[in-house]
Amino acid sequence: TALELVLIDATEQAIERPKKSQKRHYSGKKKRHTQKAQLMADQKTTQIVATAFACGSKHDFQLFKDDGSEFAEHIRVLADAGYQGLAELHENGQTPFKKSKYHPLTKRQKQRNRTLARKRILIEHIFRKLKVFRILSERYRNRRKRFALRFNLIAAIYNLELDQN
Fold it and tell me: Hey, which of 23, 38, 58, 69 has its CA 20 to 30 A from 5?
């Protein structure tokens, strides 16, 4: 049987500076206050399977671990470099190789990174289609408690649109 492929990635969205608990929402990566949304999508159908949400200061991989998502052993999980260490949690987890100052990547490693990126690009396309809705692409000005609800509603619209085509 062919392995099922699940793609994972997270995106950040700027929010207005909170009056309380600013540190929790500050993303050092984006240098502003953000909310984070994580998507899991099926590679074959490009349907959104699961979502998870956190404050901007939480790391992508920590969000994944805290979410508690577990996959069957036969499912392959592809993620970006932010999920380094995924292979320890899930034996079929795959992330790109990272080069360091003294250990440049071999040609084989570069080739594997390229093929991984070609498979992973679908999740970036899914984020692009979700961010057509301006509420997800511009600064989020609504109640932060309802961010997950609104994101899930837009994800449902995306999945519905997929089913109709």
Answer: 58
Angle 130-133-139 from CA coordinates, rounded to 5°: 105
User: Between the CA of residue 43 and those of 24, 36, 90, what are the distances in Å?
Assistant: 32, 22, 18
Query: What contacts 128, CB < 8 A, 6 or more positions away?
Result: none
- The pLDDT mean for the chain works out to 91
Write out the DSSP string of 38-52.
Answer: EEEEETTT--EEEEE
Indicate if the alpha-carbon torsion angle 21, 26, 149, 65 is positive or negative.
negative
Question: CA-based diameter of the chain, in Å?
Answer: 53
pTM for this entry: 0.88
Contact predicate 8/123, CB 8 Å? yes
Phi and psi torsions of 72, nearest 5°? -65, 155
3-state SS assignment for residue 29:
coil
